[in-house]
Write a structure and sequence with these properties.
This protein is mainly alpha-helical and about 200 residues long. The protein contains eight helices and two strands. Helices cover about 70% and strands about 0% of the residues.
Length: about 200
């Protein structure tokens, strides 16, 4: 159990490194005259609100994915993007999507309002010198590079995914997406052949 949670933390931290890399790069290279602008602070607050919303949205989506398949996001979630119309229609029929989005928007707005004094203090703090920024940038790039080299899918899971994808049956002009539970996937005619997505494999 500890090993599973430990691996989950490692993968989550590596994901956060990739997500925060553009913001970290921007903050390290942002000039002082731009940092002091009042409208720049507004832009940062809006960006933080959007970021909080996306994090909450991802958390809810992964929770629902776990409730449905018993695993965290894996290659199945990516495979289902091929059937975006069917998946979106089924999600809209199965879950209260719009109330959930509204609730996440409210929570993101409240979180931004609560953190606004802290963000103002950060914006008023002196910026790093360019040599200090260079050291921080080198450290960030090194950390991301190590994450890319060291952290990845293990061979067994990648091999299983390859074997399943190469053995997918072709169903013709119609396709159905399997899903556990009582709700059936919506079938939709298509002008091209659509393979049936494989069942999820715990990773």
């Amino acid at each position: 159990m500890l090993r599973l949670y430990g691996e989950g933390v490692i993968y989550d931290v590596s994901f956060l490194l990739y997500v925060l890399a553009p913001l970290a790069l921007y903050l390290l290279l942002c000039p002082d005259w731009l940092w002091r602008k009042r409208w720049h602070l507004r832009v940062l607050q809006v960006a933080m609100t959007i970021g909080v919303f996306l994090m909450l949205f991802t958390a809810v989506a992964e929770w629902l994915f776990w409730d449905e398949f018993g695993v965290r996001f894996n290659f199945i979630a990516v495979d289902y993007l091929v059937y975006s119309d069917e998946v979106i229609n089924n999600i809209l029929e199965s879950y209260p999507v719009y109330p959930l989005l509204a609730a996440l928007t409210v929570i993101a707005g409240i979180t931004t309002a609560v953190l606004q004094p802290r963000v103002r203090r950060i914006a008023a703090a002196p910026l790093l010198s360019w040599p200090q920024r260079g050291v921080s940038l080198a450290g960030a790039v090194t950390t991301i590079a190590l994450s890319v080299v060291i952290i990845g899918q293990n061979f067994r899971a990648a091999r299983a995914a390859t074997l399943i994808r190469t053995s997918l049956p072709v169903t013709g002009r119609t396709s159905s997406l399997p899903r556990s539970g009582t709700t059936n996937w919506t079938t939709r005619s298509s002008t091209r052949s659509c393979p049936r997505p494989p069942p999820p494999i715990p990773t």
